[in-house]
Amino acid sequence: MPRLLFVCLGNICRSPAGENVMNHLLEREGLSDQFEVDSAGTAGYHIGNPPDLRMTKAAKARGIEMRGRARQVKPSDFAEFDWIFAMDRSNYADLISLRSLCEAPGAELVLFGEFCERHDDSEVPDPYYGGPEGFEKVLDLLEDGCSVFLRKWREGEVT
Ligand code: 4NP
Fold this sequence. Notes:
By secondary structure, this protein is α/β, with parallel strands linked by helices. The protein contains five helices and four strands; from the N terminus they run E-H-E-H-H-E-H-E-H. The chain has a four-stranded parallel sheet with strand order 2-1-3-4, sandwiched between helices. Strand 3 (83-86), helix 4 (89-99) and strand 4 (108-111) form a beta-alpha-beta unit. Helix 1 packs across helix 5 (132-154). The mean pLDDT is 98. Bound molecules: 4-nitrophenyl phosphate. 4-nitrophenyl phosphate binds next to loops.
């Protein structure tokens, strides 16, 4: 069973959106019981908080419910997940450091943008200090990359 972890900075905008977009696609395709999906933040500022209301509203408009509470990523996540999706390069660099603290890291760490086919972006940009278009952009990228990941999984290209 593939275990997927989405990681951003605060775990209140991008990574919970990734988790919930992926769960939405899995539910639609009847695959929910075949995956484990979670999200976390590299920073601890928002531990225990629900997703940002702006992200929740933007997702709801696309029929996606935002569930979950923020947590911070930890070294053992590298042993407990198969895929760790970093939203941007700064998250990726922080995750490389954290990985060195895990005794048995097994997870494949990638920049999520690598899975996007309809967008050239390699990063999912931080929407926190910007306007509503930033949240739409995050969802566009996540819907693109998540559906590509699932297609590759069905085709056996990723496991
Ligand atoms: P996220 O967005 O990393 O997508 O959850 C942010 C959330 C909070 C902050 C920055 C980015 N912050 O500075 O508190």
